[in-house]
Amino acid sequence: MANSILPTRIVPFALLLVFFGITSARLSTNYYSYSCPNLLPTVKSMVASAVAKEPRIGASLLRLFFHDCFVNGCDGSILLDDTATFTGEKTAKANNNSVRGFELIDQIKSAVEQLCPAIVSCADVLAISSRDGVVLMGGPTWEVKLGRRDSRNSKKSTGEKIYSYSII
């Protein structure tokens, strides 16, 4: 059943997300080649381990990336935790029932921080993880252009409405 979902729903949205990721001229496929050379194998290994335990997590990572990109661009804003003075997208009603994978992204980001402290953005970790999840589920691969900067705010915190679409 999961394999029948892949071509009809995941692949078109994976391709859509590729176009979201190439909207800035500063992005590059070799952005971390020198500053964090083990980034890609580390992320791939951790995503592979998670997919081996629960295959659906690959699709969940893609959905998480889509929700991040949909509202304010691919900036990691969906990963921001709420604070006493900030309410983010992560806990928005539109996201809290349909988006998951936050814990895996947190684990991957922690591992990446051990390798390359304060170098790799959360937005890039999410973009790479999303691609790797799709590939590990038998979907297509694509080059992920890197160099995104993390957002420090979200649409929810600025009072704008967050929309949600059920795609997966």
TrEMBL record:
<keyword id="KW-1015">Disulfide bond</keyword>
<comment type="similarity">
    <text>Belongs to the peroxidase family.</text>
</comment>
<dbReference type="GO" id="GO:0042744">
    <property type="term" value="P:hydrogen peroxide catabolic process"/>
</dbReference>
<dbReference type="GO" id="GO:0140825">
    <property type="term" value="F:lactoperoxidase activity"/>
</dbReference>
<feature type="binding site">
    <location>
        <position position="73"/>
    </location>
    <ligand>
        <name>Ca(2+)</name>
    </ligand>
</feature>
<keyword id="KW-0732">Signal</keyword>
<keyword id="KW-0376">Hydrogen peroxide</keyword>
<feature type="signal peptide">
    <location>
        <begin position="1"/>
        <end position="25"/>
    </location>
</feature>
<feature type="binding site">
    <location>
        <position position="68"/>
    </location>
    <ligand>
        <name>Ca(2+)</name>
    </ligand>
</feature>
<dbReference type="InterPro" id="IPR010255">
    <property type="entry name" value="Haem_peroxidase_sf"/>
</dbReference>
<dbReference type="GO" id="GO:0020037">
    <property type="term" value="F:heme binding"/>
</dbReference>
<dbReference type="InterPro" id="IPR000823">
    <property type="entry name" value="Peroxidase_pln"/>
</dbReference>
<keyword id="KW-0325">Glycoprotein</keyword>
<keyword id="KW-0575">Peroxidase</keyword>
<dbReference type="GO" id="GO:0006979">
    <property type="term" value="P:response to oxidative stress"/>
</dbReference>
<keyword id="KW-0560">Oxidoreductase</keyword>
<keyword id="KW-0349">Heme</keyword>
<dbReference type="Pfam" id="PF00141">
    <property type="entry name" value="peroxidase"/>
</dbReference>
<feature type="disulfide bond">
    <location>
        <begin position="36"/>
        <end position="116"/>
    </location>
</feature>
<feature type="binding site">
    <location>
        <position position="75"/>
    </location>
    <ligand>
        <name>Ca(2+)</name>
    </ligand>
</feature>
<feature type="binding site">
    <location>
        <position position="71"/>
    </location>
    <ligand>
        <name>Ca(2+)</name>
    </ligand>
</feature>
<keyword id="KW-0106">Calcium</keyword>
<dbReference type="InterPro" id="IPR019794">
    <property type="entry name" value="Peroxidases_AS"/>
</dbReference>
<keyword id="KW-0479">Metal-binding</keyword>
<feature type="binding site">
    <location>
        <position position="77"/>
    </location>
    <ligand>
        <name>Ca(2+)</name>
    </ligand>
</feature>
<dbReference type="GO" id="GO:0046872">
    <property type="term" value="F:metal ion binding"/>
</dbReference>
<dbReference type="InterPro" id="IPR002016">
    <property type="entry name" value="Haem_peroxidase"/>
</dbReference>
<protein>
    <submittedName>
        <fullName>Peroxidase</fullName>
    </submittedName>
</protein>
<feature type="disulfide bond">
    <location>
        <begin position="69"/>
        <end position="74"/>
    </location>
</feature>
<feature type="active site" description="Proton acceptor">
    <location>
        <position position="67"/>
    </location>
</feature>
<feature type="binding site">
    <location>
        <position position="89"/>
    </location>
    <ligand>
        <name>Ca(2+)</name>
    </ligand>
</feature>
<keyword id="KW-0408">Iron</keyword>
<feature type="site" description="Transition state stabilizer">
    <location>
        <position position="63"/>
    </location>
</feature>
<feature type="domain" description="Plant heme peroxidase family profile">
    <location>
        <begin position="26"/>
        <end position="168"/>
    </location>
</feature>
